[in-house]
């Protein structure tokens, strides 16, 4: 007859020796304990971690232990589901033998794989960003190749913008023409205009300068004497 209690007790002693810093007994009846599993350090010393909780059933190891993930760090939901599936698979394969060390070792390997995947994913993201930056730089210097299709699209857009500018200009000119006042309207609206010249002369006083070169001397002007005019008739003046 198998002594399940003895097998369980011996395994607990072995586990405490193997995982002195991460093994914690929570209860004795039923026997429940946790083991924290941490991956090897990845890029920038980043790690992933999970804490597994195990509970012995009465007939363990002829029955699988109860297990669950009670905490985790840097794992997404898919990673957690993969670890649960892995524990289920390993427990079925090792049924009839003490298996906690085997289960924890399988999870340890899985965490190391996850760290490698994270590193690979980040490297791919970095390369993708570099490729996008290079492509953007090429576009900046070489521009977009001209095809008939994109040229016609550009021309249609350009013509539409030019037409809109012309419409706005015509509208502004039309509006300006409606608002433009004639000289008479300005004079009627601003009564200061009829006194502006007089006010200017009053303010200038004797300081008004006249350019004499604009005028000719009277002697230089060719004026005809009325008496020298053959059509001159004093009678006509008297009759007026």
Automatic annotation (TrEMBL):
SMART domains found in the cross-reference section: RWD
Record lineage: Eukaryota, Metazoa, Chordata, Craniata, Vertebrata
Biased composition, class Basic and acidic residues, residue ranges: 122-140
Keywords associated with the record: Acetylation, Phosphoprotein
Segments for region (Disordered): 122-141, 209-240
RWD domain residues: 10-114
GO CC terms of this entry: cytoplasm
Function text: Protects DRG2 from proteolytic degradation.
Protein name: RWD domain-containing protein 1
InterPro entries per UniProt: GIR2-like, RWD_dom, UBQ-conjugating_enzyme/RWD, ZC3H15/TMA46_C
Native species: Erythrocercus mccallii
Acidic residues composition-biased segments: 209-231
């Amino acid at each position: 007859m198998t002594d399940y209690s003895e097998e369980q007790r011996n395994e607990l002693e072995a586990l405490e020796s193997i995982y002195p810093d991460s093994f914690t007994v929570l209860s004795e009846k039923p026997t429940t304990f946790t083991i924290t599993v941490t991956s090897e350090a990845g890029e920038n010393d980043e790690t992933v971690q999970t804490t597994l909780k195990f509970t012995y059933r009465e007939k363990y190891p002829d029955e699988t232990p109860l297990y669950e993930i009670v905490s985790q760090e840097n794992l997404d939901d898919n990673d957690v589901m993969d670890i649960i599936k892995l524990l289920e698979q390993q427990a079925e394969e090792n049924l009839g033998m003490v298996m906690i060390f085997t289960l924890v070792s399988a999870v340890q390997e899985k965490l190391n794989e996850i760290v490698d995947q994270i590193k690979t994913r980040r490297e791919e993201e970095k390369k993708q960003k570099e490729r996008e930056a290079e492509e953007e730089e090429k576009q900046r210097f070489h521009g977009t190749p001209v095809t008939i299709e994109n040229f016609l699209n550009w021309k249609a857009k350009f013509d539409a913008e030019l037409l809109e500018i012309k419409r706005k200009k015509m509208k502004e000119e039309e509006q300006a023409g409606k608002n433009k006042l004639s000289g008479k309207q300005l004079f009627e609206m601003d009564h200061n205009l009829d006194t502006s010249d007089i006010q200017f002369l009053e303010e200038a006083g004797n300081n008004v300068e006249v350019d004499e070169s604009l005028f000719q001397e009277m002697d230089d002007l060719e004026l005809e004497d009325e008496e020298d005019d053959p059509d001159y008739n004093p009678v006509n003046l008297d009759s007026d």
